[in-house]
Amino acid sequence: MTQPIIEINHVSYRYEKENVLEDINLTINSGDFLGIVGPNGSGKSTLLKLILNLLKVQKGSIKLFGQEISRFKDWQNIGFVSQKANSFNTGFPATVFEVVSSGLTKKLGLFKFMSKADQATVLHAIESVGMHEFAGRNIGELSGGQQQRVFIARALVSEPKLLILDEPTVGVDVKNVQSFYEMLDDLNKKLGITLLLVTHDIGTISDKVTHVACLNKNLHFHGNTAEFESLNINEMSEIYGHDVHVLTHNHDHHDHHHHDKGAGR
Amino acid sequence: MIAGILQYEFLQNAFLTGIIIGIIAPLLGVFIVVRRLSLIADALSHVTLAGIAASLLLEKKFTGLAGLNPLYMGMAFSVAGSLFIEKLRAVYKHYQELAIPIILSGGIGLGVIFISLADGFNTDLFSYLFGSVSAVSRQDLWTILIISVFVIALVVLLYKELFLLSFDEEHAKASGIAAKSVHFIFIVMVALVIAASMRIVGILLVSSLMTLPVAASIRIAKGFKQTIFLSMLFGEISVLGGLTISYHIDLAPGGTIVMIAVLILIVTILLKKIAGMRPA
């Protein structure tokens, strides 16, 4: 049975005079892997802030796990990896294990120490992002993509049911993007974590996502990936407001169609 | 020298105090360095100087205050200075580092005025500026011991929070831990440890004991806990080595301690270079 995790109904948002979001309707069900793409300034970060309750809803309503957002308390069920996560001090002398452990700080509470079971949870989170070999390495020695995985592990360690990722592939090597998505796919399929991923780059949306939505003030929901791929270039331009150049992962040449991504499925 | 320590109380005071600050100064130093707040230690040490000078001045003007331990006034000034720094950082949101030179120069300015008002406490002041083996009293030792128990307990209890605050302040705030309170406790601890350390290392060199051992260990350590451990080890070697040398050839211990810390730093940099050249 699919349970709605996020329900957004007729949400609009404006900063002073400018409308940033207009009548957004979106439902994310348990087990979904939704990719939201939108150009810069399309209201992506505003939408995320609304979902994370960092901004108050002005018009419409948002429900999280079936509960009105203003009354929602179980924030440990939601993991968030911000875009800023990879702008940390790379010279910081902390191991991957220590960084991931820090994700338990709030959950453990003041004056509490990590138990054996907590340490196992941390190791498990590190394993689930494929970084177990690096648990003892300093975070600064890792590549951008590996660091991003560590931050995902940090979000996973409190065992969230929903994981929200803001531009997670920024700073990840092009050649590693594919395996990065495979890792997300594992989290989604094997651990049953609902994923919401936001990016400005259509090209980095992988075939691993189950649903795609395009955002530019308005939200165009395209259901499954196949539907999204069948969009023609005119519709795409309408959303983005200019000519779109879609880059695919598997090809070196630029292409105007978002095709062939399903080859591996 | 062992016989000397057993025999003379002042040597016991100096070495025991040295052992304690060799642990707590680098312990807090690790958090200071990774949070890029190294200069705060310098600012606060100069404020401590103003407190010491004020205390010495009062002692001179009012004979009734003759027994007053300048350490207490130094601590009070240091803690007050730390609170001012926090206030100023909030006022100058976009120029947070400006708080440090403001407090630093304010501290020196005040200190110089107090010193000139009470001309003639040169030798005493000298020991505060550069540290002293002979000037540490039993009362100093007890005060410093109490502070260190308090500081170590707080660092252990708040370790998770301090780590998260240092590594990722944004995330710390977002995840709902009491970042502001933890930071406040931290900065007060720093102020206390600076005042406590100046007896041995001297006001002008206190910050070095908080930063040099950390600078060395950060080059070679794996992980945060190891960084803390190595920093304390290097701090301890510097303090004990420095005190021993300064006792034997009658030098100000501040200088010898700092020079050993610098030496350790150079060795770790060279070691890392050599390790880097070796084919893996």
Describe this structure as you would to a colleague.
- With 265 residues, chain A is an alpha/beta fold.
- In chain A, 28% of the residues lie in helices and 25% in strands.
- Chain A has a 6-stranded mixed sheet, with helices on both faces.
- Chain A is globular, with a radius of gyration of 19 Å.
- The C terminus of chain A is likely disordered.
- Chain B has 280 residues and is an all-alpha fold.
- Chain B has a single domain, classed as ABC transporter involved in vitamin B12 uptake, BtuC (Orthogonal Bundle).
- The relative contact order of chain B is 0.17.
- The model of chain B has no long low-confidence stretch (mean pLDDT 89).
- At the A-B interface, α2 and α3 of A face α8, α9 and α12 of B.
- Chain B: Belongs to the ABC-3 integral membrane protein family.
- Chain B: Keywords: Membrane, Transmembrane, Transmembrane helix, Transport.
- Chain B: One of its GO terms (cellular component) is ATP-binding cassette (ABC) transporter complex.
- Chain B: Pfam families: ABC-3.
- Chain B: It is a multi-pass membrane protein.
